[in-house]
Amino acid sequence: MSSITVFSTPSCVQCRATYRSLDRSGLAYTVVDVTEDDAARATVTALGYVQAPVVMVGSPEQGEHWSGFRPDRIEALARQLATVGA
């Protein structure tokens, strides 16, 4: 399974909604606070994002990524990973 990373900031409402949606979907993920991790902030900035959360599946070069609370993308990811794991 590809790794899922949520790049977030403290007090981010959309970040918390993203965590809840990932949890409901049974997807494991890692949270990285971009206010404390300069390399993480540089990664999301290099991808063109300026708003948290940024969800990355796999690597920045070969994976998929998006910004904001996107329950549609999380549901599609859960379906995709369930198919791969079946």
Automatic annotation (TrEMBL):
<dbReference type="InterPro" id="IPR002109">
    <property type="entry name" value="Glutaredoxin"/>
</dbReference>
<protein>
    <submittedName>
        <fullName>Glutaredoxin domain-containing protein</fullName>
    </submittedName>
</protein>
<dbReference type="Pfam" id="PF00462">
    <property type="entry name" value="Glutaredoxin"/>
</dbReference>
<feature type="domain" description="Glutaredoxin">
    <location>
        <begin position="4"/>
        <end position="58"/>
    </location>
</feature>
<dbReference type="InterPro" id="IPR036249">
    <property type="entry name" value="Thioredoxin-like_sf"/>
</dbReference>
<dbReference type="InterPro" id="IPR051548">
    <property type="entry name" value="Grx-like_ET"/>
</dbReference>
